[in-house]
Amino acid sequence: MAIARPPAAMTATSFGPESGADVGNAVVIGLNAAIVAAWDEEPHVLVVTHGTGPVTRPEGDGLPFGPFEPLTHRTLESGLRGWVGEQTALDLGYVEQLYTFGDRGRHEVRPGEGPRVVSVGYLALTRALESSAPMPGTSWRRWYQYFPWEDWRDERPAIIDDVIVPRLRTFAELASDARLRERRLDRVRLTFGLDGTAWDEEKVLERYELLYEACLVSEAERDGRHPLRGLTRPLSPLGQGMIFDHRRILATAMGRLRGKLKYRPVIFELMPPTFTLLELQRTVEGISGIRLHKQNFRRLVEAQGLVEGTGRQVSAGKGRPAEQFRFRREVLRERPAPGVKVPARRRRAPS
């Protein structure tokens, strides 16, 4: 799969020479997919690792991209499912539209060249495994390699206090006036859980946007932004970069999925037909990036009626055999918001 310039067949969604408009004002529509799967307790995202199209850049991985063809696709989602199925052979489960990304220059080779590409981003879930062998040029990547500060399962990531927070505080102190300084400090506190504020796992996009604004991620430098005088860039990159605005799209997808866990049973779109409660807990923890209390998790999941036992036991290593469960689809008719409403053990930052 390659990230390629939308073909000429997209003229029905373009506003250019056919309508008498300037070529520079042409607009084409594409579809980006953050395709998520989970195994071995880790969430993964399907990425394009290299490409052959004229707009492919070497800065990093990219999310799969395909054109919306209005003469072929009845809806945007059917277009997404169509080209994903053709190019990856993946059977997508849950699919949700995220946002429309259309910033100037996001898909241009050089400023002013080619049509403006407006991309509709999607979150898509699949039960694919690492052994599912994606098409040549694609691979599965752990999503925390793009956002290492988001994984709190073991402890508060050291990168936050050692690298990120000192630079963000400097970014705030270098503000042009007192009001802007306080606004920046508030954003730092709220997004990164400082000064007694609890970490909010859903604020993935807000954290990335703040790091981009402070010129602390590689995409900012690539886009020609320069840090304020007196603010030094980290010696090592803050997570692996992605081409164009694809890390921003992935951050949007991560935050949306983390929030969705709490009121929709989307986690089961990532699970096999049968699973143990420990496997379910580890998958929830992998997506949310935080640890859950084992006994509380089991009691609440069972009390919410999300799962039912199969009566089968599987070996769980050195311990006792574990019972296998399956998702109770009846819960969708029983309650309007059947999510995994489980409190987490959040570690607060030192005041």
In short:
The protein has 351 residues and is α+β, with helices and mostly antiparallel strands.
Write up what this structure looks like.
This protein is of the alpha+beta class. The chain folds into three domains: 136 residues, Alpha-Beta Complex (Nucleoside Triphosphate Pyrophosphohydrolase); 92 residues, no CATH class; 63 residues, Arc Repressor Mutant, subunit A, CATH 1.10.10.10. It has nine helices and eight strands. Strands 1, 2, 3, 4, 5 and 6 form a six-stranded mixed beta sheet that branches. It has a two-stranded antiparallel sheet with strand order 7-8. The chain is globular and about 65 Å long.
Separate helix tally: 9
Considering DSSP H and I runs of 4 or more, what fraction of the residues is helical?
25-40%
CATH superfamily of the largest domain: Nucleoside Triphosphate Pyrophosphohydrolase
| N- to C-terminal distance | 48 Å
User: What sort of overall outline do the alpha carbons produce when their principal axes are compared?
Assistant: globular
Q: Low-confidence stretches at least 5 residues in length (pLDDT < 50)? A: 1-23, 51-58, 345-349
What are its keywords?
351 residues; alpha+beta; Nucleoside Triphosphate Pyrophosphohydrolase; Arc Repressor Mutant, subunit A; two-stranded antiparallel sheet; 8 strands; disordered N terminus; disordered C terminus
Q: What is the element layout, followed by pairings?
A:
Elements: E1 27-39, E2 42-48, E3 65-67, H1 76-88, E4 95-101, E5 116-125, E6 138-142, H2 158-173, H3 178-192, H4 204-213, H5 218-222, H6 246-260, H7 277-288, H8 294-303, E7 307-314, E8 322-327, H9 331-334
Parallel strand pairs: 1-5
Antiparallel strand pairs: 1-2, 1-3, 2-6, 4-5, 7-8
Helix pairs in contact: 2-3, 3-4, 4-6
